[in-house]
Queue: 2 jobs
Job 1
Amino acid sequence: MTAAPPVAAPSAATPAAPRAVFDWFFALAGLGVVAIYVRAIYFTPIEATQGAAQKIYYLHVPAALAAYIAVSLTALMSIVYLWLHDERADRLADASAEVGLVFLTVVLATGPLWGHKIWGAWWAWWDMRLTLTLFLWFVVAAYLVVRGAVEDAAMRARFSAVLGILGALLIPFIHLSVYLFQARLHPMPIVLKPGEPSLPGEMLTTFLLAFLAFAVLCLAFIGVRYRVGVLRDLAAEAIA
Amino acid sequence: MSGNPPGTLAAAWLIARKDLAIEFRSRTAFLSALVFAVLALCIFYFAWDESIIAPADRAPGVLWVVVAFSGLLGLQRSFSIEEHDRGIDALLVAPTSRESIYLGKAIGNFVFLCAVQAVTLPALVLFYNLSVGEPLLGVAAIMVLATIGIVAVGTLFSAMAVNTRMAELLLPMVSLPFFVPVLLNAAQATTRILGGRPAAEAWPWLRIIIAFDIVFVVACTMAFPYTLEE
Amino acid sequence: MLSTSGSLVVEASGLCRTFGRRRAVDGVDLSLVAGESLALFGPNGAGKTTLLKLIAGLLAPTSGTVCVMGRALRSESSSRASIGLISHQSMLYRALTSLENVEFAARLYGLESPRAAAMTALDRMRVADRARTPVRALSRGLQQRVAIARSIVHQPALLLLDEPYTGLDAAGAAALTDMLRDVRRAHATLVLVTHNVDEGLAVASRAAIMLDGRFARQDDCAALDASAYRAAYRSMIVGETPPPEWTMPVSA
């Protein structure tokens, strides 16, 4: 929960690195998540049919929301970069993609844990959100691998932006294809509609608060990672 | 001397012909992709017990996995020949538009992949004991439609990959997620057709492939100039 | 298509190009009219190749402008029909024959009889007897001759040459010098990057020395004493102090 580490004094060649400050936003986000889990575990009723296992739901779905926020930001920043050629947009796209990958992994890890408990199956292919998240994971992973494989900064930014935009175009096609695939067998609502049964008051409140906490956490992580990106670019310039 | 530089499609066709001429000289990539495809068909055959799942039932899935991976082998080479002695620079200095370079490469890849598939499909019929008949024409049509989509994204990504480290590893990793809608829908459509279902049942799947083709041919043509050195 | 005499073929103003933090071209102003030929000298890393690529439209300027015959080559593909480029790499396809390589270029430029034009170009570089040989089987010097033939097949009005004499034997160098003289006689414009001062001065009407991304000096070749220029240039490159009259800035 600490801020970016303090950096050496600027030399004549490099511009001054950002001053180390305590990251209030991140601390707030962290506290928010802790508070949510205290509420979810101790102060929210246990669900009737699923038992205590249902509580993973407060992690699984908000993590998905955080992931979608991050990944959408990457796609948006890709467009902004190609339009304005501002390296800050590229840096933000990179930060969002990494944070997005982490949250996507959380969704993919908690999904089977939950699914196995309540359905007896590890992977529910008919769960649209889970399947889409899986393919989104592959696309974001490819995005990050491409970033790692290109040395020239301008070329890296261009390639990533192209991949970000094409990836955004791809998602509806995957959604359509998988929906068509399982619609024959298990008609299920689409990913945007909450597929779970409507929640009673207490649980709904916890759920919505969890959404908020994770959204804030996502943005806080992106902020931290963005600053790491700035430091990294400064270091690369100093070496060059 | 005044010349009349060819238009976009004519220049694309010139570039495609040039690529195919180069490929025809050595045929190494073509034969590698071909041997891989046929060998993979055979290996997959032995992965199942034919008393549990009939070969004809696994054929569609196997076909599309093999098409995807043999396609990747072909896509690798399309920009590596330009990188060798910077032939790409000559194309960029000539009065050919960036779009025609992309289209030319894509057309060359399309012909290459179709040529590999022209052997893969009969090999499938042979090894999986499929009945020869009209449904095979339907499958061939699906293969053509799917190949357009595969080539559209694959050509763009091979242009990117040639500028990176580990190009051969990067291309499959980036391309395969994009192949998923094509492969999924094509496999489902192929299952319907080979299962003797009426063509109308395959249509919802084919529709998505066609939409994918249109969207990505346009998007990748527009994206291509960004993959060139600036 | 040759431009009329007196019109500006190459015009660069404040041209800059950076790669990361390195300024390869750092504020170049250049004007070349039709029929002029510029010999560009300078040490390795001075930015000569980058400048050539900027003129050819292969690279985009970080700032400043460069126009060929009044048009920006990067955005308008049709105006590229009158330039030819010879660079460090051959830009040939090794699996194809010499004739196929040059004919492909001829077709790309939309020439009327591509095959005949290709044979003519190969003949000018005295490599027509290797027309049917795959480029892969040719020696470095012969590959260079084929590469040069490919770049002149469409008789460009502006020819950009980056150390074209590299790898050429005496016969190849003679063919190139003859070709360049013909090109000059036809009133085309040349920019020749070379390390060999004699070769450069033999062909050029203007000479420039590039240092650290900008022109250290430009001279009219008619006013130059070749041996003095050569000696002073050499000392400049090696790092010794050149003679005093050398350090006077010379306007274009």
Note: The two ends of chain B are 30 Å apart (CA to CA).
Job 2
Amino acid sequence: MSAGGMNIGAPVLEVRGATKRFGGLIAVNAIDFDVREHEVMGLIGPNGSGKSTTLNLISGMLRPTSGSISLRGAPISNLPAQTISRRGVARTFQLVRLLPSMSVLENVKAGAVFGHRRRWGDEADSHALKMLERVGLHGRAHAPVGMLTYIDTKRVELARVLAGDPKVLLLDEWLAGLNPTELEQGIKLIRSLRDEGRTIVLVEHVMDAIRSLCDRCVVMASGKKIAESTPEEVLNDPQVISAYLGDDDA
Amino acid sequence: MDILITGIVLGGTYALIAMGLNLQYGVARIMNLANGEMLVAGGFAAFWLYTGAQVSPILAIFLVAPVTFVLNWLIYKIMLRPLVKRAKTRGQLEADSILATFGLAFVLVGLMIWAFGGDYFSYSYLSRPVEIFGSNFGLNRVVAFICAVVICGLLYLWLNHSRAGMAIRAISVSPSSSGLVGIDVPRLSAIAFALGGAVTAMGGALISTFLTLDASTGVLFTMKALIIVIMGGVGDVRGTIIAALILGIGETMVASFIDPGLTLAAAYLLFILILLFRPEGLFGRRLT
Amino acid sequence: MRFSGDDWRHIAIAVVLIAIAALLPFGGNAYYLSLGVNIAMYTALATSWALFSGPTHYISLATAAFFGIGTYVTGIGIETTPYPMLLVLAALAGAAVAALVGLATLRLSGIYFVIFTLGLAEMVRQIVTWWQNQAGSKGTYVLTNLTEADIYWQLLGLCAIVWATGWLIGRSRLGFALRIIGDDETVASHSGINTALVKVALFMVSGSVAAVVGAMIAPRYVYIEPASAFTPMLSFQVVIMALLGGTGRLWGPLVGVIPFTLLWEVISSSFPNQTTLLLGVCFLIIVYLLPKGFVGLLQKIRMRASGESARDEALA
């Protein structure tokens, strides 16, 4: 049973031995994990542990040096990003990427038009408006993106991602950089997504969020997986603590 | 065998020219399409000094270098620095600098035509044959080659064994990180740009000893320098030298075995193949 | 496809203007007609160039190559093939070459693309020159019954087609994809857009149009040779005209073509050696003063005017 109340299903995403080398640097070292349907999986670890790179491997931004990644059994590891996106894997970016020349509505539409449910015209507009409401930006459809607050830019990006009806959502430190009020709103929003039964991979640093949102956590350090369990167990694991704080404080 | 040596000799001189562009693009991040015009200017200067004052082109280099260094430094500071400051992305800076340096190139060509007319100029310096390995080669080509080797060697030593050289190499890897470790990126970029221009002009002076130039041939040399820099991998000195040699030998082979009129076509074929199979060049890093 | 009231108005204005322009040959003035042909030619070239290079920000210098290919299609085929067929062949040839070049280079960064296209015309010219030498001639004769007026109307028709195409693309998924790519290519590919394919498709459109322009102009030259058919100057001129006018609007390049063509006429008749200098100065003006062309300047003026009126209202 997921924290959201839905039955956790079969694995949707299978990562097997995924490795990424940049010259002599091994950023991701033979990572193995599954993400099952309807679960929220947290990918955590200290800075530089390879979490974002792993996300980049899944979304197709980078190609794995070796190993494989599959979506419902079909391999996606060497496919280009646009194909992976069309198969239903959508992501947000660590530094929010909005389209500067377009309005909020058009930014969200961009997610709806080219996905696996190719919407256009009025259908795309109304779907995009629905997404904006979903993320709490009702009535802001025609605001220019340059005028938005930080959390609102994140909402727009999330709306864009949701507009493509993704099967798996990859959130790359989506809660980073938010003040306490915004953080509360942000956690509530993601919780509501979880309650809908969405499959989410959450790369995060914010421990509160991880504890309250995730069903399971995979902990990475120096490119390797060092723990995998429920948030409670993982955050009390001495190995995990020493990875974050250094051996002296374990 | 002849062809090999002729090719190497040609390639060596090309290397000097491409080195100039490598410094400007690799460090200052400016794709300087007026590079060829700087070469022609260097050639012009050598021509005057030789025909007017009987100064050997080899010595002319010592005059050409500081003058073009200052000239390029001014070009960077006045024309290009504002573009660097206003560009929000690397792509935008590249687009802007292409247009600006194109403008500069055409303005320089226009000025040169206005001042000296559009005629070809060449002069005869050391055009006696010299015997190497049993065949005859132009002494002027060989001397130019030796000078190019010396200058390239000095440049290589300076870049790899001096403090300033190391700073410059750091900037070519990552300007933003270099700034973080205390390197004065704007100042050194200007110096690298100026140095690149001076090196190219020196190459022009050397090339004018055995090739005929005119105000409009700059574009040709710009293209060849671009091919070499990209083939060798941006920012890497070894790559530039090897790519230049490959181009020199390749051109000579095409000119001898197929047709002299197809040398540029052959160069472009080589370029296409590199772009298709190894766009980062021989020694470059894949730009993410 | 739905057209709004505004759309019909724009279409009506365009049709009226084109109809007026079509009357030029009846004025009887050969000089103006010749100027008109030049303007129509450059407008077709610059507008189709802007369809690709505007949204993607890739500066293509391959126009001369496609143009030259088009002139040679006419030059070679004029004796044997019916003229309309030649135009179709030119369009296909242009599209095919653009597809090859595009697939090879558009996956790489913009700078490689510019450099490659810079040399493309030269490379093709060298090959064609060499091939003509092998065949024993220096150039090709193109003898037809087509008058200057015929050429003018054809080019005007081509301009209309280019505008219609650009307008339709702008309202389609393709146009939306292009705008997204121009804003942020990473977002584009993560939204499911095959960025390479989109870019190649638009490049094929611009290459195809340039080739057809070349095919239409060949009869005007009567005698074509590689140096004039593939002159790199053409590529630079087209870039300047499109950027001077501004690629943000469909009519932008037209606004750049007219003053530049006139200026070029003046300079090349009074100071024939200074045309290169003119090109250079124009490039510099574009970079430092008019980065978004006249279109951008107009937009700035409009925004300032509406900003001032809003402020006046607020203060009143």
Note: The domain at 1-78+199-250 of chain A is CATH 3.40.50.300 (Rossmann fold).
